[in-house]
């Protein structure tokens, strides 16, 4: 018997879901899966849903649930219904297990854990794959002593093969005898993960299952439940599957903490990445539209489809993310950036001044940390702390030159960068010096560092009094 997964005919509305297990934060791979599901649904005018797969009570935490929901929200991914919690639905999952049992698509297995361990031990010894051998598949349950605990196992097809037409992996075929009769309901009456996923996807009306390709094998285990329920009730169509390749590190190995496989909040908080930059970066990680790098959310909704998803793993590259981030920083509204940067600087930050300074602060920055570092001089208190290099610029005749600059600028009435530049240039010429010879000690005196925005912008941003006071404080 050969069976093929089919496109659910007659279903006009696309429904996708993101189904994270809240055992950790929303990491980069999960965020990308969420993004692709969201984009696919939005592109097709469908719905997208969030399901928290919290059935592993020991490993699921409220902290992780909050981080996932917050991370999705920060990325700008919204859902068409409140999140569904898998753990709330155990009764419904069990109901389906019993329906499968009653219709003969599943059976009770009375094998004890010790017996199953002995079975595996023997398989190991004979170098056979470790699989349940179907010992209760055709046995009369009446043979089990009264009151013996049992699990419910799915009666999966033993012959033939199953083919999935995956929208990313293309045609994938697995022999049915490779899928054992696995447990769908445990002896304590709780559903297994494999059953829960299928029942929830059906009940949520999910038409397209888009997830990491580490779940491709699961699709071959999940389809027999879907097919059996379809035989019993009808209206349990196969979903369309799209298993997307995992993300690898820049060295080609599977992404791990070592490569920066952190929660999205780490990119927000520690790396100072804007959500639209991460959105764009995750989109480009495994999906392409020609060689376009910069794609806005709106364009992404217009352009995204599964055809553009590549089959080979993509490599995570923090430099590319930062380059995109630099682009979005330059595009971003200055008042918004000022608020984000102020939060990094703390109480000393002056929001209005930050906003005014933002056009010059953000030009070369690749992340919010760099903007905050670049802005620090604005709020520094006299006497300014000097970096070692800045102090060196004031050695020699640096302080003597500063005195001349200070005196000259004190007479300047037009405190604009154009006028200040003209005055400083004139002084440089008079002294027979290059502009740099003046600008370097000025920068040191005004900012305490050797890198800053253009020196005349710095003078203007600090304002006449503060700028002159800083120059005077370092002048000989
Ligand atoms: N909960 C699974 C995970 O976080 C996803 C299950 C699925 O998408 O079917 O890996």
TrEMBL record:
Residue ranges of the motif 'KMSKS' region? 254-258
Q: Which reaction does it catalyse?
A: tRNA(Glu) + L-glutamate + ATP = L-glutamyl-tRNA(Glu) + AMP + diphosphate
Where in this chain does the record put each Aminoacyl-tRNA synthetase class I anticodon-binding domain?
A: 337-473
The record places domain Glutamyl/glutaminyl-tRNA synthetase class Ib catalytic at 13-322
Key words, A-Z: Aminoacyl-tRNA synthetase, ATP-binding, Cytoplasm, Ligase, Nucleotide-binding, Protein biosynthesis
Instruction: Output the PROSITE patterns linked to this UniProt entry.
Output: AA_TRNA_LIGASE_I
List the InterPro entries. aa-tRNA-synth_I_cd-bd (IPR045462), aa-tRNA-synth_I_codon-bd_sub2 (IPR020751), aa-tRNA-synth_I_CS (IPR001412), aa_tRNA-synth_I_cd-bd_sf (IPR008925), Glu-tRNA-ligase_bac/mito (IPR004527), Glu/Gln-tRNA-synth (IPR000924), Glu/Gln-tRNA-synth_Ib_cat-dom (IPR020058), GluQ/Sye (IPR049940)
Q: Does the keyword Flavoprotein apply?
A: no
Q: What is its EC number?
A: 6.1.1.17
State the compartments where it is located.
Cytoplasm
Coiled-coil-forming residues are: none
The signal sequence is none
Motif range for 'HIGH' region?
A: 20-30
Q: Which GO terms describe its molecular function?
A: glutamate-tRNA ligase activity
Q: What class of enzyme is it?
A: ligase
Q: Which Pfam families match?
A: Anticodon_2 (PF19269), tRNA-synt_1c (PF00749)
Q: How does it assemble?
A: Monomer.
Q: What does this protein do?
A: Catalyzes the attachment of glutamate to tRNA(Glu) in a two-step reaction: glutamate is first activated by ATP to form Glu-AMP and then transferred to the acceptor end of tRNA(Glu).
- For this entry, the protein name equals Glutamate--tRNA ligase
According to its UniProt entry, this protein's organism is Erythrobacter fulvus
């Amino acid at each position: 018997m050969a069976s093929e997964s089919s496109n659910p005919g007659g279903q006009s509305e696309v429904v996708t879901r993101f189904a994270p297990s809240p055992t950790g934060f929303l990491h980069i791979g999960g965020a990308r899966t969420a993004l692709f599901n969201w984009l696919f649904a939005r592109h097709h005018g469908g719905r997208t849903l969030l399901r928290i797969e919290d059935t592993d009570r020991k490993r699921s935490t409220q902290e992780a649930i909050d981080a996932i929901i917050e991370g999705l929200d920060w990325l700008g991914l919204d859902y068409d219904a409140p999140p569904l919690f898998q753990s709330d639905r155990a009764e419904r999952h069990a109901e389906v297990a019993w329906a499968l049992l009653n219709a003969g698509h599943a059976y009770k297995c009375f094998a004890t854990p010790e017996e199953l361990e002995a079975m595996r031990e023997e398989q190991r010894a004979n170098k056979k794959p470790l699989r349940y051998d179907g010992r209760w598949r055709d046995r009369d349950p009446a043979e089990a002593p009264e009151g013996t605990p049992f699990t419910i196992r799915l009666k999966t097809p033993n012959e033939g093969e199953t083919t999935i037409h995956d929208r990313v992996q293309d045609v994938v075929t697995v022999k049915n005898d490779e899928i054992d009769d696995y447990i769908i309901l445990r002896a304590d009456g709780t559903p297994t993960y494999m059953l829960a996923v299928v029942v929830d996807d059906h009940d949520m009306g999910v038409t397209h299952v888009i997830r990491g390709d580490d779940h491709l094998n699961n699709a071959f285990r999940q389809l027999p439940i879907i097919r059996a329920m379809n035989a019993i009730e009808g209206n349990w169509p196969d979903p369309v599957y799209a298993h997307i390749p995992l993300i690898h590190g820049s060295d080609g190995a599977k992404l791990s903490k070592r490569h920066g496989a952190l929660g999205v909040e780490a990119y927000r908080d520690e790396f100072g990445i804007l959500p639209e930059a991460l959105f764009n970066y995750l989109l480009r990680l495994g999906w392409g539209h020609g060689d376009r790098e910069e794609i806005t959310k709106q364009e992404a909704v217009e352009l995204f489809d599964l055809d553009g998803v590549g089959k080979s793993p993509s490599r995570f590259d923090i430099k590319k993310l930062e380059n995109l981030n630099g682009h979005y920083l330059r595009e971003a509204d200055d008042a918004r950036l000022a608020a984000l940067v102020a939060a990094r600087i703390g109480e000393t930050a002056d929001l209005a001044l930050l906003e005014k300074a933002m056009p010059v602060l953000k030009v070369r920055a690749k992340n919010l940390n760099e903007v905050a570092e670049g802005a620090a001089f604005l709020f520094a208190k006299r006497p300014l702390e000097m970096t070692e290099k800045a102090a060196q610029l004031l050695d020699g005749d640096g302080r003597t030159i500063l005195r001349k600059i200070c005196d000259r600028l004190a007479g300047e009435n037009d405190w604009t960068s154009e006028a200040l530049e003209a005055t400083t240039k004139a002084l440089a010429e008079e002294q027979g010096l290059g502009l740099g010879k003046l600008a370097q000690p000025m920068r040191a005196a005004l900012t305490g560092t050797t890198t800053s925005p253009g020196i005349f912008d710095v003078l203007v941003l600090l304002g006449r009094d503060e700028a002159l006071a800083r120059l005077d404080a370092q002048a000989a």
